[in-house]
Design brief:
The chain is of the alpha+beta class. The protein contains 18 helices and 19 strands.
Length: 569
Amino acid sequence: MTGALRPVLLGGYAAKRCPRATHNEYDLTVPRVEWQPDPAVQELLDEGRAFEDHVVDTLLSAAPDAIDLRPHEQHKNRHIAETMRHLASGTGLIVGGRLPDDLAGGRTGKPDLLIRAEDRPDGRPGYHVGDIKHHLTLHRSPNDSAEVSLASEPSRAQAVVRAGVALRVGDREDDCLQLAHYWRLLEAAGHAAAEPWGSVLGTDGAKGYVPDPLVLSWYDLSEPLFTTFSRTAGKRRRSSLERYDHEHAFRFDVADVARRRTGEPGDPAPLVLPIGHEECRDCPWASVCVDMLAGDDLSRELGGVLSVREYLTLRAQNVVTVSDLAAAELDEILTEDYHQEVAHRQNRAARLKKARLHAELAEAGLDIRRRSDAPPVPTADVEYDIDCEWSPSPERVYLWGVLRTDGEDSTYVPFLDLTVDDVQAEHALAERFLLWLDGSIRADVAAGRSVAVFHYHHPERSQLRRIASTSGREMPEMCAEAAPEAWIDLCKIVEKSLDSRIGHGLKAIAVHGADFKWSDDDPGGLQSQAWYEQARSGDATATARLLAYNGDDVRATQRIRAWLSRPRK
């Protein structure tokens, strides 16, 4: 091999993503790819960028000593120099900075936030790291509390304790690994605070989990939060920094081997081989890895149903293909060795049972299968299907839609207010919808008609609870049939009625099961948000599309109920 090897510099995502992606990036014998995310992934990316822009604008206007260094992003050296200058001068909040590359540790990165802390023993200003994420960081927990900082006072020293909520931990390990990466970079740069804390600014304020519009939730990166695999003990609790150090070191080794491969005899063997899993859905390297897997490979077909370790454990038991798992007896797989290898996984037997179900469906060429033990679908003389739409950030419900079905006659009734821009207006719209629903149902009952109200999954009931909580006003009293507590969650019935490889989401089931088609060619949350912004600007066509989209959602739930009520073929 001639020439200098490419230096290994891993970014903030490496430790939390598939190590094979790191290999592919550094192995120049692997074909390069031009990745075009599918519409669903692109929608999430766009929503995340819009949320981050909104958060940054709010922080810069609220924090008294904040600087935005994003304009320097195109010039790496200048970007680093400006970041170091503001760190040295003790700027209160640095947004969009870039820390110097840590050549010895193999790290590079641009933390969203650098937040002033106490001075270090050497007299330098100390800092904590922060990240902006388009998801929740807290969950409601009446007996717990969490430390959060406000946008106007983002430092941990000014954190306040919010009762009734707790940090999300199990499903936010990736956030903590990324914070740990930036912390190690900050240490190498000589400006880490005395204690390793990091914060995540999520959607908790927008979704009403706390009374403040924006909060930074604080994580102790040295606290043992995560249950992980242990070769000696089966499982062990480890801190964010311990998890990160292990994962980063492994990926550094993966990259070091990968960069030495030239395609010539004598190349070192890769430390990791391709395997299908959940991350493949939005990985730029997915197509390259798929081409390396056999057509009937279990992980290729099932993807994120199981984790990498679970697939590797099955391979060790010669369960390699879809047919292998579909024909397997679970008791023969769930050996002591299997349980030990995936001891850190909760519900491992249930997860394997689900994987075999997916293998059976794949073997039969099916996406959805009606179950013989499906529960009956509730019916009534008059049936109401409801659905709501909300703005992205801050979250405000601006449309409640109802489909009233009486025999063969169905009527769509929307409650739309595009001017909703605060919690009181949002409450007024919800109240108007509920009072209409209550009045309509009272009339049905008075006429001797039975009534049922349906929604799909939890958003409608969750939004009403949020609106009542954030507005400080109770919702109007409902008759028993109209009360949200009496509404029937159709999604729960679907989950008990269908075996599905494509999930149990409204659109998946309506399209692939009930043969329903939305009137718009590209229905989705991102599209509705675009129409919402256009409609607020006076675009009548966009308003009509919003109403059609919401109307189709409630018609889809009605169609699913009708389909499930038909005899199985």
